[in-house]
């Protein structure tokens, strides 16, 4: 049970930091591309912690993915730095917040990879109980979201203010953002 609390703390931290990075001048496309770097982080920590070795083709693949992520990050930095509507001092502040966002994404990426290694080590020690792990990883952090209740409520209000959408077949009308969320949840089953 103690190990699940450690894993839940990692999971909760990764989730909150990833979401908070969006408040730090990180564009959603960059956020999505950056998170695809989990292969890189997992390989790096696998080499460092687990002393794993990989084939040349895997190193080459990771190098190419890294190049793509670096290119997207670099281009995003140029876009943040060249925002012409800001004076030089404000532009520097925006850029520094962006750098903090990149640091947050990097931290979350490495923490997520570490969580995967921790889970792998638990499976080796106690056996693979994936349904149990899935339950504890998602049930135990729920009280932690009470700390974020004001922010969650604020976004629920914003969702409720989105344009109305009539759900086909059943004829129910609800705000479109709630419909999107509902479809996201339904399609995960």
Automatic annotation (TrEMBL):
It is found in: Endomembrane system. PANTHER family: NUCLEOTIDE SUGAR TRANSPORTER SLC35B4, SOLUTE CARRIER FAMILY 35 MEMBER B. The lineage of its organism: Eukaryota, Metazoa, Chordata, Craniata, Vertebrata. One of its GO terms (cellular component) is endoplasmic reticulum membrane. It holds the Pfam family UAA. This is Solute carrier family 35 member B4. GO terms for molecular function: UDP-N-acetylglucosamine transmembrane transporter activity; UDP-xylose transmembrane transporter activity. Its main location: membrane.
């Amino acid at each position: 049970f103690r190990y699940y609390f450690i894993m839940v703390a990692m999971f909760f931290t990764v989730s909150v930091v990833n979401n908070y990075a969006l408040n730090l001048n990180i564009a959603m496309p960059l956020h999505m591309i950056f998170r695809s770097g989990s292969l890189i982080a997992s390989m790096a920590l696998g080499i460092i912690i687990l002393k794993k070795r990989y084939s040349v083709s895997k190193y080459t693949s990771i190098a190419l993915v890294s190049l793509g992520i670096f290119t997207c990050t670099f281009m995003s930095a140029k876009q943040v730095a060249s925002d012409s509507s800001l004076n030089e001092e404000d532009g520097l502040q925006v850029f520094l917040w962006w750098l903090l966002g990149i640091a947050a994404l990097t931290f979350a990426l490495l923490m997520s990879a570490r969580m995967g290694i921790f889970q792998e080590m638990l499976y080796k020690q106690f056996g693979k109980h994936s349904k149990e792990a899935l339950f504890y990883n998602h049930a135990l952090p729920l009280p932690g979201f009470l700390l974020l209740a004001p922010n969650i409520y604020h976004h629920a209000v914003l969702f409720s203010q989105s344009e109305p959408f009539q759900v086909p077949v059943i004829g129910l009308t609800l705000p479109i953002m709630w419909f999107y969320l509902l479809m996201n949840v339904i399609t995960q089953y």
